[in-house]
Queue: 3 jobs
Job 1
Amino acid sequence: MRSRLVVAFTALLLTLLVTPAALASTMTAPSTVTEAEGEAIQGTLRGPDREPVEGAALSVAAKGKEVGSAKTDADGAWRVDVPGPGTYTVTLDVATIPKGMQPRDKGGATLSDVQVRSGRASTVIFPLIAASAKQQDPEAASETSSSSTEDSTADTGGADAPAPPAQEGSGFAGRFLQLVVEGIKYGTIIAITSVGLSLVFGTTGLINFAHGELVALGAIAAFFFSSGPVDLPLVLAAVLAIIIGGASGGVLERGLWRPLRKRGTGLIQMFIISIGVSLLLRHLLLVLYGGGRQQYDQYGLQGEMALGPVSITPRDLTVTVIAIVVILCVALMLQRTRIGKAMRALSDNRDLAESSGINVDRVILLVWILGGGLAALGGVFYGLTTAVYWDMGFNLLLLMFAGVILGGLGSAFGAVVGSLVVGLVAQLSTLWFPTELQNAWALLALIIVLLVRPQGILGRAQRVG
């Protein structure tokens, strides 16, 4: 029976490996258009109070010639079909927006170099503020206007990691401190998602390849609850996403992994099964969510605050602080509570923990629920700092594994330390090397550390054989 189960899941895995391209070709993103529909530029115009702006006029031009225009509807949405892929200039007619509002930046009513890909709709954002607010200087405004277009385009390419902001410090020292702040933010997001991965490995020995899909599930669930017909505050949407992520982890444990353990399925076979589950969940998210990139409507565009030689947006500062607080709460739970001590005991020695009266199945179920909830929260944070898309968890999975291995397999505290190292190395490497290589340098740091200390930073050396 066991051999038949392994063969069945292996066949499922091979089927999923050869069919993603065919599956993806049948799906369309909610923010993109198909080849039959043609190319377009679209967006949603909102005022300083996040309420939609109706009746604003926008025009799209190519090479100085207007190719289309539109007005925003009752929801603030607008769309202009363009003749084909290329580079366009989008202009907002400021005379048609309500009195008391103005573009956030000088020159911000015109967005140039808007890239449109074949068969896709590019999304642009015009940030509006109250008319009495102070505008930026022209040079900074033009830079911000350009970056707003790039960051808000639904199908932008490039690295998925948060790109370093424009450096405002003085020389190398200022840039270094700015990237340290960015590295801490990036590292804490990786740490939140990797703690659950480490706890699952410590208590069950399973390398869960599907953990990244819980990250994407959390981000997509929060996007669904915070936009569209539901339109909840993002904080409440994030809470619901955490509940969904925790429940999903519990369902996977109770419905799949526990029965497999009871049947005596080996860890290698379970690892292969986790790859199949990852592919299945990932493409299920593609079917339900689509292939485009979306931004959360709330907290999307903010000005930076100067904190000494560094600058950071209130959103990123809040994300970093909350991530650190959550990590400290998890550490306190593991050290001071009965369930936390049971998790650590199970991770150290399963047989001894079971003989001591610990309900192993119950502890493992709670570990999966905790890991799923933390992964969902990390997905919301990652979506806030980059974008929400269907395979974002898979793109972050390699860095999660790097943080877990670097810190020490099975150690939740090691996963936090390793993730912070990964985040810092990834960001600081951009001082000398292209941004596209930042994750590669983080993985190189992993290799170097393991050559010197194979058990990881906080891992314990074990006798082999």
Job 2
Amino acid sequence: MNGRKKELEKIFKEAGCPELLKFTYCPSDERYKLRIPVSIKNKYDLKPAYKARSEEDIINALFDDIHKVQMMSITLDQLYELRKPAMIDKTRQRDRSMHTAAKHIEAYEALVKGTAFGAKIFRTIRHDDFDDFYCTCEGMHITKSRANEIKTTLNKIWEFGKAKGLVEVNHSKEFSISEYRFQPKKAKAVKTPEEREKLIAYYLDLDTVYGYACALMECLNLRVSELKALKWSDIYLEDGLILVSHMVDHDGKYCDYTKNHDDEGSHYVPISPRALKILMIIKEKKYNFRDGFVFLGKTGNFLLTQECNNNIQAACKALGFQKKFSTHDCRRYAATQAALCGMSTPAMQKAFGWKDRDTAEKYVQVAAATKEHEEMLVNVLN
């Protein structure tokens, strides 16, 4: 309540009438009254006076009325500032979300904040405004990865605005950036089959829940968020398939969707003989403590992505690798090898649960270039 009163004192002071923020008591009516100066009344379309049983009720009612008007004229940058504290809290968490949140803050403040797009009234922003903004980004020659960071940040701001009642639709999420030309992300080194074999052996020797989780990830083309959400009821051992239709988000919340947030993201993953052996070890170790989850501790906590990455980094260091791998490199390895074996773009898109066809096409193109270069080298050597 004190915060609201100070905000009102500031508004009255800026209007040049700080002394008029005073309450009078009417014994006959048994109520408090506050008269609103004309300048403030006209600016926020308020009533001439407010009446209530207590000063606190008047302050709350007046603040809510003024706040509604302020929110109607709030800019994108101002809304971002309101949401920023929650984003900063994310950067203090012990999970991958800390790095993601830091990237989102940096991306917005570097490319959106202070621009004409950021200065627009939030609830009035429409398709043409997004088009102008992304055309500007395109001209700045930023990478596709960077563009996706901006889009994700804007998506979250629009969800925040939607929760505040400023908009009914997340216009940012509906806007596609696939038609814009951004620089390709710099290719990251993919592990070799030999390196992968050494990593799997290292993980199994750890004999820990995180060790088995990392080993299983190497043998299944799952995202780490999907691995966390894996239940024994999703595993069809007789058919040799796993149904992937859920995920655990950065907040540790179990979600009834995958990364794509729709039914297209649901897909089946084949269980390799090696993955089956690891699953049987996990089952024997009884790591599925409760609720049918493959990885869920006695306290009900899911695996931490950062802890998985810490185990991977420790393995790379112990094995003397110069490269630094992460949880996502398991999927990158599987996709690269699938493309090298001749798997088609539509088949890869379905198998890996990608919404964007370009993602699958990227691996197919890399594989084609690799085979072509190998043939050229053989001809040269001959």
Job 3
Amino acid sequence: MNEELSKSEEFTKKVKTKKKKKIYKLTILFAFLDICAIACFIVVYFVTPFRDMIVTTALRTMSHKYLAYVFYSENMVNKVLESNYYVPVDEDVDLDQIVIDTSDKQHYDSIYEEQILKRDPGNDDYKIIDVEIGNSKGYLVAIYDPSRVHLITKEVLGTKLGEKTIDMCNRYNGIVCINGGGFLEEDGWGIGSPIGYVVNDGKIIWNSGYNPNANLIAMTYDNKLLLTVDSAENAIANSNVRDALEFGPFLIVNGTPMTTVGDGGYGRSPRVAIAQRKDGIIMFLVVDGSALYVDGATLTDMIDLLMLYGAHNAANLDGGNSSTLIVEGETYNKLMPNAAKTGGRYVVNGWGLLPK
């Protein structure tokens, strides 16, 4: 009898010990979660760079602007915007400063000049330079014949369905292509019409409303990159515009970078830009990133890198999930997870190096 009682007491002790251990583990777990929550709260609300990154990045996305107001009050959002913005260059592009001479050189002023000007063996069309930019990987493409850089668009403008950059590029027999301007979204995933003007071969093929102050990113019939704040009607009549789309901001004008305060107001994100050097070489810049918008480049990062490689005029293009570089019929950059699910986001236009 005593032996049975002893076994029962021993069993009871073991059960109580297990319960205590379980409670102890749960206590540690909840304490850890509390510490994490407090740490996240401190980071989100009191670490200025992180707070600025969340607000500016969220507000520049097409479908996640609400995130800025989930974490912060309207007053705090406004304060962040007041300390993160850009000031555009207050002068017109002087195309006379662009003197097209893209021949290879024997001597180079810097390693960046050598990377741009020294051709890959057997390829006089383009060269891809892998770069580190912001906290991500980027791809700078030098295109040696600016006369072959043309607008590409989805097959039928004005319809709801967009087209992937790779499909547009292949349809144009493009060799190297990037996405271009913005678009109206009806389902949050790249379905809709272009925002602003689209010009092809000197004709306006899309216009979402006359705008005398449009940010036009254009190629002229003289094969020069024109950045102008004007209507497409005036640009065609007065500036010899061949192809154009509407987007921005303009990052560099006549060799002068725009002024950025903080992160420039656009946060950190995958990005795309088009630029031209004084010798006429066109550059495409595409930057990788992640779905959380914590990787990628700021506008300042884009400007700094393009200046190193001699950009004389440069403009920002649509980034985020749209960021795409197509080379020889294949997607060259790392697509964001959302875009990767479908093989690329649906967009409406872009720029491409086309066959002669």
